[in-house]
Amino acid sequence: MISTDVIIRAQFYDLDPMQVVWHGNYARYLEQARCALLDGIGYNYPQMALSGYAWPIVDMRIKYVRPVRFGQEIVVTATIAEVANRLKIDYRIRDRASGEVLTKAPTVQVAVRLDSGEMLLESPPALTDKVREPA
User: Fold this and answer.
1) 112 pairs with which residues across the strands?
2) Diameter of the chain by CA atoms?
3) Fewest C-beta atoms under 10 Å: which of 42, 74, 93, 105?
């Protein structure tokens, strides 16, 4: 299982009028963890493009368990859950101090050929070989 953590401190500009992190900002937090994870396997967005594929997100679900507040440090863990037919990444956002789970989310990305726009029904070796290689 390939996984990585990023630490984020909630900033004032992340908050909504209720003084908790606005729900739309969680997608940014997931993206930070996803990019760190993809960097770790050597297949982030620039490498995807060089390999001839785009990997758009086709599904994202977020379960908000507890709010994140101003100044709170969180750990966002991204874990590759599936690569055979799609790239599925599972996320957990935890309070850094207590370890309490605050948010759970999966994203699903599919390979799309850049030259034709065709969506592939299985992940190309450009991804699957990276996941099988030691990081």
Assistant:
1) 54, 119
2) 48
3) 42
